[in-house]
Every structure is written in C-alpha cells, then in structure tokens.
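This section describes the prediction task in plain terms. A model, or a person checking by hand, is given the sequence of a single protein chain and must write out its three-dimensional structure as a string of tokens. No templates, partner chains or ligands are provided. The sample shown here is typical of the held-out split.
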Amino acid sequence: MDVWQERLCSAVAALRNGCRKPINNKSVAIAVTQELQLSPLEQQDASECLVKLVEHLEIL
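The expected answer:
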C-alpha cells in the first residue's frame, strides 16, 4: 500500500467513525482533504484519488 492509499484509508476510517457525516460529493471531498491536511500541491496530486474515493463512497 502506498502513502496515498494509507492516508486515504485513514481518512475514510475517520469519516466512517462519525468524525464527519458527508452529505454530498463536495462535502466528502472537503472532509477528506481536511482529514488528510493536504497542501495545495498535494491536493493536485491527490485529485484523482479523491475522485475515485468519492465514486467508491457513492456505491456504499
């Protein structure tokens, strides 16, 4: 598992544990970004991962 996968898994775990209750795609992306404490450059690098994560959460 690479660094992004580990960080995303931690963020998802925090979301699922009730730290935040996402209402829509935008709030999911915002919550994950805040949970990961991403810098602007990291946000750019992680954008594809965030899109995939939001799509995955929509399925759940």
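For orientation: The chain has a mean pLDDT of 68.
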